[in-house]
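Morning. Coffee machine broken again, so started the prediction first thing and wrote up yesterday's gels while waiting. Chain of 379 residues, entered below exactly as on the submission form.
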Amino acid sequence: MLAMGASGGTVASTTKLTDEQRLDWLRLIRSDNVGPRTFRDLVNAYGGAKGALAALPGLARRGGAARTTICSEENAQAEIDASRARGIDLIALGEPDYPPRLQTIDDAPPLIAVRGDITALSRPLIAIVGSRNASAVGLKFAATLARDLGEAGYGIVSGLARGIDAAAHRASKGTGTVAVLAGGHAHIYPAEHIPMLEDLLGHGAAVSEMPLTHEPRAHDFPRRNRLISGLSVGVVIVEAAKRSGSLITARMAGEQGREVFAVPGSPLDPRAEGTNGLLKQGATLVTEAADVIAAIEPILGRGIEPIEEPAHDEPLPPDHEPAEDERGRIVGLLGPSPISIDDLVRLSGTSPAIVRTVLLELELAGRLERHGGALVSLV
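Came back before lunch.
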């Protein structure tokens, strides 16, 4: 996977954006229908965020959008200024302080907003998540596990939610914990956890990819969950019902190549149905911190490797507009069921560059959804 520099190429870990480049990156990721994967494609195709911003209106129009909203320089600068006033750093993908494991996922945020002790993000991190309506036993175990892992040198990641998340954060605040927010830093959810968040910032950090004033909605929580697992070496699920957001985190962890751990529970407790199911599917059983450490230590010794993605060697010509028959063939092959980009190239009889151009047009028009594994579908 690419770590994007201002020119759109791979950057070294010592590279930092200029103020102008950071402003352009923020404008691009805050523009309509630009997500992390689209951001990367645009920056790589158009030589940087500035070129991508100039290309957005034409691409969206060809994809069928009547108009597209591009984040203005004024709005982006206002967010940067307001963030700095709150002690929040906007860290770009590829910069030295960007969390190294998060950088390996295929939809890593181009910019993350971090408040607190940034060095907490450079430690080996273990996620602990679970039920909001947790049992007393679950809360006690989560706290014990977080405390023991913290004392062993690991940072703890969770989602600041009620129940298991809160127990893990509180128990590890002295050794370092990272709270991943579903909304912006100006809208902490739940509001009752604001004092806890302020308390953990001395040795830990709060992380968000959302605009500063964004108020979290239901669909923002699964998006947040991929960051919880992406930051971590492994994810421990303490309690989870059959249909639980924690199981989404576990699934994402598996897709990202992270270790998935589960704490067994009584088969009579519905809060253990999801975790017991994970164990049946091959998750590593956890009854103490030593179980996690034994599985994690060999992984840390191997270093960090990016998730492999399908190669598309042909460069995307920035000034190329597909012919109508080419565009029609590609759009005609798309539907509500996900299809791989490689299959689109093969079945359409066109080049990877043309297919990727059409996909960018459709996505910027709000007509395309991207899935993991280089799969796409029409909205």
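Residues 136-151 form the longest helix (16 residues). Going to sketch it on the whiteboard this afternoon.
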